[in-house]
Design brief:
Blueprint: E1 2-6, H1 10-21, E2 25-29, H2 32-41, E3 43-47, E4 52-54, E5 58-59, E6 68-71, H3 78-84, E7 93-96, H4 103-107, E8 116-121, E9 124-129, E10 132-137, E11 141-144, H5 153-162, E12 168-170, H6 174-185, H7 188-194, H8 198-202, H9 205-225, H10 238-245, H11 248-259, H12 270-276, H13 287-296, H14 302-317, H15 323-330
Parallel strand pairs: 1-2, 1-6, 2-5, 3-10, 6-7, 7-8, 11-12
Antiparallel strand pairs: 3-4, 8-11, 9-10
Helix pairs in contact: 7-12, 7-14, 9-10, 9-11, 9-13, 13-14
């Protein structure tokens, strides 16, 4: 299968690199700095599987029509990416990988819904610089179709290819899984506000207490909305429900211990990675998803709303909050 990956960030580089190493016909599309780095020195991947240098073609636009387009840009970059490459994607299957629930809706502005498949990445990676990424931890690649309630036969064929890079799982209810993935990503905002790795941020149980409150507020919104959460590979619903049922101090200690062992290498969440690259983050499509859903149900998601505002303040002012500033700003919103 002829594959193109648009987005030469952490996830795009990782999946393109591993597919290329497995002999797949794949090329990358990225920004000029990525094109220069990877064209000149190859794509460098380090981390849990070892160190690799991958010789892979990369361009600043699509140069040939792919059978499969894997879209790995941030959600806010989807529209310009598809506009720039529209002539070569009209009849292509497009696979989304973005966090949140907005990606498919944006892609549907450009191609028929039948051309769009969804995925959830459960593996973790960190972007170091153009052409260099760290593979932090393993995980599955969940595939599904948000626009069809019946099982899509194309997903099985696709899973056989993508399984060469990461264990591919086909879901019959990817919507419920996508909402649970919002919980997985919802604490990235804290590390971004503080400007530190996930491990460093959550080493402090006081900070981890805010994380548990994020989940508690989000779960309340999901429950009131009538939506159904579906367990993810390696992350069952009980990871959330058990923790939020415990006393806050006890839950915070458990969360802190879990996150400190997340990866041997420093893990910088997707939101902070964008900020460090001088770009807008995807926080509106993660924590903002709880805020949007709450508004539709005449509820409030005050803590998540505050965290979204704080991330945007960091983006605007280029200054991270101190831990004391962060705890003071969130304290009254924890209950």
């Amino acid at each position: 299968m002829r594959i193109a990956v648009i987005g030469a960030g952490a996830i795009g580089n990782l999946v393109a690199g591993y597919l290329k190493l497995q002999g797949e016909d794949v090329y990358l599309v990225g920004r000029q700095e990525a094109v220069r780095a990877i064209s000149g020195s190859g794509l460098k991947i380090s981390g849990v599987r070892g160190d690799f240098q991958v010789n892979i073609s990369i361009y600043d636009m699509l140069v040939s029509k792919p059978e499969l387009l894997i879209l790995t840009t941030k959600t806010q970059d989807i529209e310009p990416a598809l506009k720039d490459n529209f002539s070569l994607i009209k009849d292509t299957i497009i696979l989304t990988t973005q966090n949140g629930l907005a990606a498919e809706r944006i892609v549907a502005k450009f191609v028929p819904e039948n051309n769009i498949l969804s995925s959830i990445v459960m593996f973790g990676a960190t972007y170091l610089e153009p052409g260099k990424v760290v593979h932090n931890f393993e995980g599955s690649w969940v595939l599904g179709n948000l626009f069809s309630e019946s099982m899509d036969g194309r997903l099985l064929s696709l899973s056989l290819i993508l399984d060469k890079a990461f264990p591919a799982v086909v879901s019959e209810d990817i919507l419920g899984m996508k909402y649970l993935k919002v919980f997985v990503n919802a604490n990235n905002c804290i590390a971004a506000i503080l400007g530190v790795s996930m491990q460093e941020a959550f080493l402090d149980p006081q900070v981890s207490r805010v994380s548990v409150a994020i989940w508690r507020e989000g779960f309340k919104v999901i429950s009131k909305s009538g939506l159904k959460l579906v367990s993810l590979p390696g992350f069952p619903i009980e990871n959330v429900t058990r923790l939020i049922s415990l006393p806050p101090e006890e839950a915070a200690k458990i969360f802190s211990a879990t996150m400190s062992k997340l990866s041997r290498d420093p893990l910088y969440g997707s939101i902070l990675q964008s900020i460090k690259r001088g770009r807008l983050s995807e926080v509106d499509y993660i924590n903002g998803e709880f805020v949007t859903l709450a508004g539709k149900c005449n509820l409030k998601a005050s803590l998540n709303k505050k965290l979204v505002e704080m991330v945007h303040e960091v983006e605007k002012n280029k200054r991270f909050f101190s831990k004391s500033e962060f705890l003071t700003a969130t304290e009254r919103l924890l209950n």
